[in-house]
Every structure is written in structure tokens, then in C-alpha cells.
Amino acid sequence: MGLYLNPNNSAFRYALNSRIYVDKTGLISYTNNVLESNERNICVSRPRRFGKSMAANMLAAYYGRGCDSRDLFKGLKVESSPSFEEHLNQYDVIYLNIQQFLRKADSLSDLGKCIEDAVIAELDDVYSNYYDSSQCNLPDALATIYDKEAQMNKGFIFIVDEWDCIFREAKEDDTAQKAYLDFLRDLFKDRTYVIMAYMTGILPIKKYGTHSAINIFNEFSMMNPKELAEYVGFTENEVKNLCRQYDMDFEVVQSWYDGYRFADQIHVYNPKSVVDAMLSGELDSYWTETETYEALKIYIDMNYDGLKGAIIVMLGNGRCKINSRKFQNDMTTFKTKDDVLTLLVHLGYLAYNKRKQEVYVPNKEIAAEFLDAIDEPVWDGVLQAISSSEA
User: Fold this and answer.
1) pLDDT < 50: residue spans in the chain
2) Whether pTM exceeds 0.90
3) Residue 257: which domain range?
4) Given 113, 141, 253, 387, which is the most exposed site by the fewest CB atoms within 10 A?
């Protein structure tokens, strides 16, 4: 076991040992079905505190051959899946938390090199007789290992958490961003050693020009979660079960934390907010424990025609049509209010109806964040306008 190559399963065990754990192991049945297929590259984007890292840790615990996780999955949904035994702890997993590498890199442009050096150092402990690490980059090392071990059907599963943090923390550094995307493209594109790549982040994959910089990934986002909708957050039935367990009024909980809708049927709740409400017994806005209202304020204060009017409409329980197709999947390239509103969907401040192409404020918790963000002189008169729109 290593830090990056086949880490242990302790992170998932801690999740299981928490006072509230909601079984999302059904996701593994989906990923088992796409291993070694053209759909094996997955990018899941969700807001903060929507369970991205928990899912990544779960997949690493299930697939990694550096540990025995059978007991961790005992009694969970995936245990009854026909594919459960076939893939349990059978693969070399490379687990990368990009946030950690971003802190370690000497410079932003060296992020890819920092990742490469760390992973090769651990590969050397197991496979050093297959290649000369001083003459080899990471993709070549992995390709060589795969070629040597092909008769044993050994490839690699990549779990990449916080894949997009460089786009959030170095918003203006296009050079570093492009270097990082080039690294990811070289690592994953057309590589047969990749049995599966599962990336999580807040933003969908960055676009440059008219094309995605890495076009091999099947993307599941807050605007289009597709088959993974039920794994975005807590579903309505899961929240109902928690309300019964913790003696909470479901309808009141619903008014506070429901509102994200997929395919007009699946109701999705922010897991952190629901868990905090259940454990504390208090219905409140827990969003500020994730990030302050200042993060929202930056975007709704932007000077784009119609933006403030749209906020007024939505805080009055209205909805606004948007065109999300031109959004560049970053936090700096804004040309219209629609770009700003699309970003707010990915950040979780707005919900999106794909069929109607409308955005809206999902619930009381998020409405409270908006009201905090507009409680300044520049928004004078807005509260009165909201009151008028509700009348």
C-alpha cells in the first residue's frame, strides 16, 4: 500500500463509522459495467459537500488490491450485485487528490510534474524492474507495466479527487491550467492501461475555444447528471428514512433542503446540510460551514445586463430561462448573465430544470445565502422588489 498507489481503505471505513451513513454503493454497480469500455472515463462535477470525496474513497476501497475490503461492504447494496465478487480488490488503483499536490508543487506550472514524480516513486517500489524511471515519464511507465503484465490482465484504475482545484484557486493562470490539462490528456487519452478513470470536482471539464480540452470523459454534472442522478446527493426516500430515524418533520426538512431536481422526478438534497440538521435537531442554513456568502456575492454583484433582475425574480420564487451552452466551465470567462447563472448551478446556489432550461433558487437554505449576499447598499431597494414580486 502507498499514498497514491493502492492506498488503504481507512477513509471509507471512517465514513461507514459516522453516525449517519447513507448507502451509495450502488454507484459501484455502474462503474463495474463500464470498466475497460469506451465509457470508462468518468467526470463527476458537484458542489462542495455533495459527497464527491466519499464516493472516491469508496471506489478506491472497493477496487484497490492493496487492502481487503470485503467486511466493509458486508450488508451494503453492492454486495448483492452479480459483479461484486469479480472486481473486489482486484486492481492497481492510483488515487490522486489534486488539492494536496497543488500545495506541494513548487509552482502551478509544475503541478503535473509533481504528480508524476510522486506516483513514479511508488511504482518503483513494485515495478522498477520493468522500466528505467530516470528515462521514463508516467504514461510511458504505466504503458510499459501494462504491456509486461498484459497476460495477467493488469491495468490501472485512476481515482482523481478535486481534479479542477487549479481552475478555482488559480483562476487567471491560463498557462498553468493548459499545462495541467495537457498532463491529464497525455495520461488518459487513448491509453489502454486505463481500466477506468473516475474524476470528481466542482466544475465540468474546461473548454478552450470550441472544444473540450479533454474530450474522452463522459461528464455527469449538476446540469445533466444522467444515470448518476441518485448519487449526486441524498434522495427523497433517503431523507424520509432519516427523518423517521431522528424524529424530524419531513415536510419542514423538505422546505429547507429540497429543490434540486433531475428529470423532474429525482429530488436531491445537500447531504451535509441534511446530516447537520439531523444530528443537531435544528433546521438552519449550514451552507456557511462550507463557504461564506462572500463567494456568492462576487458573482451576483457582476455588472451584466439582467443579472440583478434575474436574482430578484428567483428570490421571489420565480424562474429564469438561461442558455448554458456558451459557459466555458471556468470561474473567469463570463460574457453574459447566463454564464454567471450557469456557474451558480455548478456551485449549488441555483437549481436547473434541463427540460425547460430554467434556473431557480432551490430552497430556504440557499435563499438565506442570497439574502445575506445582497444585504449591502449596492442592493438597496432589492428586498422591496422581492416583496413586490411575491405579492
Assistant:
1) 391
2) yes
3) 230-287
4) 387
